[in-house]
Design brief:
With about 325 residues, this protein is an alpha/beta fold. It binds inosine. InterPro entries: Inosine/uridine_hydrolase_dom (IPR001910), IUNH (IPR023186), Ribo_hydro-like (IPR036452).
């Protein structure tokens, strides 16, 4: 039997995070060995509470939750929280009861380092929020990029407009300094940006299909999806929602659902372009020595088999 890929989901739940977490638990190719939490869609304290709650819904309280950073890597406390996308509670304003479980004592960064040391080269981190925890792991252990198997990043807007403003995508905008540290760390990185996830849409008809399923995840998600659908109807005038986090999760499960290009990625950390992700294909050798030279390359998703991805997400969420 093929060994299941060990994954840690770094998450800010979040409605599409909830979908991705359930999808991971429904994917026989992977074993979820932990969740780490971060601010983004909600503040970190609420992200931890929601992560514990979602694991209780799944009956998977055996999976540890490690709480992540409450501030950016530069100790910034003015965070941009996307409660207008996910509801004030992050889960569609459903006022779920507080979870019974507690996070483990370890911080997210130290849990990431510990797991990378325990299973060198074997752990995939699926990063669904700002990249602070992973940058902290790199800061605390410079060997972390070599020991972690792969980091799949949901983030960036490669050659397209962002979703926070024309320059920046939300997860990169949340902590651009961390993003630049992670992208240039030398780790095996696969980035899935909104240039790709905006092609993966759950339509109103798909949601109706989900609501007719008796699967426990399908039933739960139909309760929380209203807020996410309303936001997309109002902001994008689309008849459906973007499946950002589930698409990134599937890139970790089965990378062949997407295609990639390889090059250097740098992140703008200040000014009106703060959070901009720039991809350099390294074909042109520039004469000048600069911050682009001799940087490690990463893989950036360019196309996705959207129908196959949507079908797999629907199938796995309905058969639960
Ligand atoms: O318009 C938006 N502003 C802020 N965050 C968003 C928006 N749309 C989606 N997300 C959240 O940020 C990630 C993708 O950028 C996704 O995790 C999604 O939940």
């Amino acid at each position: 039997m093929v060994e299941r890929k060990k994954i840690i989901i770094d998450t800010d739940p979040g409605i599409d995070d909830a979908m991705a977490i359930f999808l991971a638990l429904q994917s026989p190719e992977v074993e979820v060995i932990g969740l780490t939490t971060i601010y983004g869609n909600v503040y970190t304290t609420l992200a931890t509470r929601n992560a514990l709650h979602l694991l209780e819904i799944a009956g998977r309280q055996d999976i540890p939750v490690a709480e992540g950073s409450h501030v950016t890597i530069t100790k910034g406390t003015k965070l941009r929280i996307a409660d207008f996308v996910h509801g004030a509670d992050g889960l569609g304003n459903q006022n779920f009861p507080p979870p019974k479980g507690k996070p483990i004592e370890q911080s997210a960064a130290s849990f990431l380092i510990q797991q990378a040391n325990l299973h060198p080269g074997k752990v995939t981190v699926v990063a669904l929020g700002p990249l602070t925890n992973i940058a902290l792991a790199i800061e605390q252990d410079p060997e972390f990029p070599k020991k972690i198997g792969q980091i799949v990043i949901l983030g960036g807007a490669f050659s397209v407009n962002g979703n926070v403003n024309p320059a920046a995508e939300a997860n990169i905008f949340g902590d651009p300094d961390s993003a630049d540290i992670v992208f240039t760390s030398g780790a095996d990185i696969l980035a899935v940006g909104i240039n790709v996830t905006h092609q993966v849409v759950m339509t109103d008809a798909d949601r109706d299909k989900l609501s007719q399923s008796s699967g426990k995840y399908a039933q739960y998600l139909c309760k929380i999806l209203d807020v996410y659908f309303s936001y997309h109807h109002d902001s994008y005038h689309t008849k459906g929602v973007y499946l950002h986090d589930p698409t990134a999760l599937l890139a970790a499960v089965n990378p062949s659902l997407l295609t990639y290009i390889e090059g250097v990625v740098r992140v703008q950390t200040n000014g009106i372009m703060r959070g901009l992700t720039i991809f350099y294909n390294t074909k042109k050798k520039f004469g000048e020595v600069s911050e682009w030279c001799n940087k490690p390359t990463v893989k950036v998703a360019v196309t996705v088999d959207a129908p196959a991805v949507v079908e797999l997400i629907m199938e796995r969420l309905m058969n639960s």
